[in-house]
UniProtKB/TrEMBL annotation:
The lineage of its organism: Eukaryota, Fungi, Dikarya, Ascomycota, Pezizomycotina. It holds the Pfam family TPR_12. GO terms for cellular component: endoplasmic reticulum; membrane; mitochondrion. It is found in: Endoplasmic reticulum; Membrane; Mitochondrion. Residues 274-341 are annotated as: Disordered. Gene3D superfamilies: alpha/beta hydrolase, Tetratricopeptide repeat domain. This is DUF676 domain-containing protein.
Length: 765
């Protein structure tokens, strides 16, 4: 792979004189042709060193301040292997371009591609979008000119696209059975290019799509992207698939040259007008679903599923190793971090499409925690797309996904589930099963199954989704990594701690590579590992972990990390507050109840002020307070003392309208409150909680389980005792007929482990 400078001659060019760089990329080599010869002969006529090369002889007249390069590469190696090779070769194109430019070069770039070379350009820009090393190249690319490139009119159906590009191989001498032919025909090589997300990225470029009047390989409809006229100009040239990008001296060729020069001059002029905006300090974040790092500890476990290994890719066992920024400080006090510490940076929610103003606005509102405004914007976008595009359209489905995601993030599981089910039902009618949008919906569905307690089903769905995403968009894509986190949580729910650690460790390593070690989402990934690798805050007797070196080290590291976050992203950032909450829970483990109480009250107050009293993170702080009182307020044999009940009742009030009582998280809370009242001989109050618990098990997979049988036994005991002994009624939540509840802020695992200490439930460990 190499770039050959055509203009100005290399000996006379200077980086300080040119204003734009232009790179021309050829397509598939004929079967028996030399690599270098094909790179040049794609653009010249007649073939050979004496041929006329319009890129060198004609184009400079309209782009005098440009450097023009010709890119040489072995296209059979690019298009004849597998998807990962194709992606790697696209990255090699980026590296070659990078090496031709100065550091921090902000001069615009134009790409010109013929046939499948245009697809390589598109994949390179996708790679640049996902890789901070090359993001600047994407940011300064302003124009694209495609000659007979098979775009398929923007059609995202893989197999029809594969058939189309295979025709190019046939025309260049490849036969059925050849590697190139078979790989192209299958079509999965180009799954990134065929997504609606890539269509959004195209909106930032000025595009020309040339098609040939005699091109019987790539018909006119397939040679255009289907973008609006202010983005894409579709131009007819006289010639076949091979000749339309060669300019000789005939009248036909000169007529073509006029069109080519004028259109390239147009995107050249627009490039000069645009102010490049490279992102040198922070990496541009690829299109993702917006995982926010919120801790959603899983409910109690079921026995491992025997067939899971068939669906879960193997990964070596590793010892969790956080990045360098997480290290226990020499001084455990809340002091200021060292002045030379690299700042933690980044946003929790990047825009789904950085070039779409509405997507950028949505991300800004999410990061500002203006969730009501987010909902209004998302509903408006969905209604517009549904009305103008119809429901069987990827834009409409993606808008529905965003609504479902926001509902899930803010604790409205029931609403989110309805939107996901609708979007999956509609999208399966017109999208392929492995379409990236369907895979995102499947991941969200899998997370819901985990929250509902269907851990085996969740693992099965998430493992399959992860494999499909790794094949379709790569192992380091943030959508893939979001699924890997969800799968790690499912493994943890099933009691497979080592599998969960391996998943989350791999995700942490990939996030560090893609986003940078000090990105705020990498910090959140570290907290994921700490949470599953240290005992739960309710594990064992009070203060039992005070000599555990792992817990001591984690507490010191968390303390230091909080200082760094507070200085870098502020004390009210969600990740900062999450770290503070975990610090309080670690203090419970160490038996330091005074500081634990202070920390947890502080985080509850700050979270409530920043995010609102109904936010899931606020409820996570409420549950942490309940755990604190369950450890420190025990009297006699009551493991769930009265001091815990106000916190747990507040949590349950929040749970019911958002998640209902059919999920394990709600059932755990009902059981704890029922047991607490029963142990204090408040049988009427206990009876009402157990009535709700028995009803909650009906129609679920736990109907008839040991948990359901225990709930029925407790209910009978309370009914008999209430009639026999009576007892004062409590007027708190659950005492009346209209008691309610709400979402759990990711606390199901804490409640489950607390029940498990009494042998009343199943632990996550």
């Amino acid at each position: 792979m190499a770039c050959r400078q055509l203009y100005p001659p290399p000996s006379s060019s200077g980086a300080e004189t040119h204003k734009i760089d232009i790179f021309a990329v050829h397509g598939l080599n004929p079967r028996s042709k030399d690599i270098s010869a094909h790179a040049w002969d794609t653009w010249r006529i007649p073939e050979g060193p004496q041929g006329r090369l319009w890129l060198q002889e004609d184009l400079p007249r309209v782009v005098p301040d440009a450097r023009i390069f010709l890119y040489e590469y072995d296209s059979k190696a690019v298009f004849g292997k597998d998807r990962s090779t194709f992606i790697d070769k696209a990255t090699e194109l980026l590296e070659t371009v990078r090496c031709e430019r100065d550091k921090k070069d902000t001069r615009p770039i134009l790409f010109i591609g013929h046939s499948l070379g245009g697809l390589l350009i598109k994949q390179a820009l996708i790679n640049a979008h996902n890789n901070p090393k090359f993001t600047e190249i994407k940011d300064v690319t302003t124009g694209l000119a495609f000659f007979a490139t098979p775009h398929n009119g923007g059609d995202w159906k893989l197999m029809s696209f594969g058939t189309l590009v295979a025709r190019v191989a046939t025309a260049t001498g490849f036969q059925p059975g050849d590697d190139v032919m078979e790989v192209l025909k299958e079509g999965s090589l180009f799954s990134d290019i065929l997504t609606e997300m890539w269509q959004h990225q195209l909106m930032k470029y000025d595009i020309i799509s040339f098609w040939g009047s005699e091109d019987y390989i790539i018909p006119p409809k397939s040679a255009k992207l289907g973008m609006p006229g202010d983005v894409e100009n579709v131009v007819k040239l006289n010639g076949d698939h091979s000749s339309l990008c060669k300019i000789g001296t005939t009248q036909k060729d000169q007529d073509n040259l006029k069109k080519i020069r004028r259109n390239i001059e147009d995107i050249y002029s627009k490039a000069l007008e645009k102010s490049p905006q490279p992102t040198a300090n922070q990496p541009a974040i690829p299109i993702i679903d917006g995982w926010n790092g919120q801790d959603r500890t899983s409910p109690p476990v079921l026995p491992p599923r025997p067939r899971s290994a068939q669906h879960t890719p193997e990964r070596r066992s590793v010892t969790p190793k956080p990045p360098a920024f997480f290290a226990p400080p020499p001084d455990p006090g809340y002091g200021s971090p060292e002045t030379d510490t690299q700042s933690i940076f980044g946003e929790i929610y990047p825009p789904t499409n950085p070039t779409d103003p509405r997507s950028v606005q949505e991300a800004e509102l999410r990061n500002a925690n203006k969730w009501d405004d987010v909902r209004k914007l998302e509903r408006h976008v969905f209604e517009v797309y549904q009305r103008t595009l119809g429901q069987e359209n990827a834009e409409t489905i993606n808008a529905a996904y965003e609504i479902a995601f926001t509902a899930f993030e803010t604790g409205y599981l029931l609403d989110s589930e309805r939107w996901v089910d609708w979007a999956l039902q509609v999208s399966r009618q017109f999208l392929t099963p492995k379409h990236p949008l369907i895979l995102k919906l499947n991941r969200l569905k899998g997370e819901m199954l985990t929250e509902k307690g269907d851990w085996e089903e969740a693992e099965n769905l998430l493992a399959g989704t992860l494999v499909d995403q790794q094949d379709a968009i790569g192992t380091s894509h943030l959508d893939t990594l979001a699924t890997e986190r969800a799968l790690g949580v499912a493994c943890y729910s099933l009691g497979r701690l080592a599998d969960a650690q391996n998943r989350l460790q791999h995700r942490l390593e990939c996030l560090s590579e893609v986003l940078g070690e000090n990105h705020v989402l990498v910090v959140s990934a570290v907290i994921d590992l700490i949470e599953i690798s240290t005992p739960s805050a309710d594990a064992g007797p009070y203060g039992a972990q005070r000599t555990n070196p792992k817990v001591i080290s984690a507490e010191a590291g968390i303390r230091d990390l909080y200082n760094k976050l507070k200085q870098s992203v502020g004390p009210t950032n969600r990740i900062t507050l999450r770290v503070l909450r975990n610090h309080g829970k670690l203090k419970i483990l160490l038996g330091d109840t005074t500081e634990a109480g202070d920390l947890l009250r502080r985080v509850k107050s700050q979270t409530e002020s920043t995010l609102g009293q109904d936010h899931p993170d606020t409820m996570a702080a409420v549950v942490a307070m309940a755990l604190l009182y369950s450890k420190t307020g025990s009297q006699g044999s009551n493991a769930f003392p009265a001091a815990m009940r106000p916190w747990m009742e507040l949590y349950l009030q929040w749970l019911e309208p958002r998640k209902g009582f059919k999920i394990t998280e709600s059932q755990n809370a009902l059981a704890m409150l029922g047991i607490s009242y029963m142990n204090d001989k408040l049988y009427f109050e206990a009876e009402e909680y157990f009535e709700k618990l028995v009803a909650a098990y009906q129609g679920t997979k736990k109907q008839g389980s040991s948990e359901a049988q225990k709930a029925s036994m407790w209910l009978k005991t309370c009914r008999v005792s209430a009639r026999a002994f009576g007892g004062a009624r409590n007027t708190g939540y659950g005492a009346g007929r209209n008691g309610g509840g709400g979402r759990g802020g990711g606390s199901g695992g804490d409640l489950a482990n607390l029940l498990a200490t009494l042998g009343l439930g199943r632990s996550n460990r």
